Amino acid sequence: LKSKGAICGCSPTFPHGQLRYPLTTSHTSTHRSSHSYYHRHIRGGASASPSTTATASLSVTERLAFGGVSRATAQILLYPIDALRTLAQTRDHRTLADVGAKALIRGCTTTSSFALFIGAIQFGIFGATKQYCGPVVASALGAAGSCIVSVPQEVIKQRLVTGVYASFRQAVKTIYAQEGLLGFYSAWRPTMARNIPFVIATFTANDVLKQKILKARDSSDDADASDSSSNELSVKQNLLIGVSSALIGAIITHPADVVKTRLMTQAASKALPYTSTMDCIQTIWKTEGVAAFYSGFVQRSAYMGPLWSIQFALNGVLCKSFEERKNKK
Question: ∠329-313-134 over CA atoms, to 5°?
Answer without folding.
Answer: 85
